[in-house]
Automatic annotation (TrEMBL):
This is Putative Glucose repressible protein Grg1. PANTHER family: GLUCOSE-REPRESSIBLE GENE PROTEIN-RELATED (PTHR38789:SF1), REPRESSIBLE PROTEIN GRG1, PUTATIVE (AFU_ORTHOLOGUE AFUA_5G14210)-RELATED (PTHR38789). Residues 48-69 have a biased composition (Basic and acidic residues). Residues 9-24 have a biased composition (Polar residues). InterPro entries: Glc-repressible_Grg1. Residues 1-69 are annotated as: Disordered. Pfam families: Grg1.
Length: 69
């Protein structure tokens, strides 16, 4: 039963990791857009960094759950 719970947690972390990755890439593109205002670009760059941190966090948590399976 515990391995089923860990597998579900692993899957959840993988989904969250993917979501953070997509958000990061979107924010990177906005940050590079020369047609966007400086404030918008800076905010997108800040958000991309936060998304990268979240992506790494979810990857680490997912690996921990995977090891417990």
């Amino acid at each position: 039963m515990e391995s089923i719970k860990q597998a579900a947690n692993y899957a959840s972390e993988q989904v969250q990791k993917a979501t953070s990755g997509v958000s990061k890439e979107t924010n990177k593109e906005v940050a590079k857009d020369s047609n966007a205002s400086v404030g918008t670009r800076l905010n997108a760059a800040k958000d991309a960094v936060g998304d990268k941190i979240d992506e790494s966090k979810h990857d680490a948590k997912g690996e921990a759950h995977k090891q417990q399976i």
